[in-house]
Design goal:
By secondary structure, this protein is mainly α. Helices cover 42% and strands 10% of the residues. The chain contains 3 helices and 4 strands. The strands form 2 sheets. The chain has a two-stranded antiparallel sheet with strand order 1-2. The chain starts with a strand and ends with a helix.
Amino acid sequence: KWRPVSETESSCVEAKPFNIYISKRPSGKSDDSRFMYQSSSMEFLAQHGFDFSRAIKNGISYLNAKESEKARQGVLEEERKVLS
């Protein structure tokens, strides 16, 4: 969000960046994804203080479209069982 630093300094702005770590996690016992990387990218990140453990342990997990649909169907199936 950009905003003036003060009422008198309208040509100045203050920026506050933040990072959100995402991490692909397996959604089931047989659903383990591979993690591929470019060694030069990993070296660059390490040299600039990137915390790999934090990204993996505390990252926001996500699903691709196929996994999301599978999870949604599982929830709907469980809901049908409960309601019947």
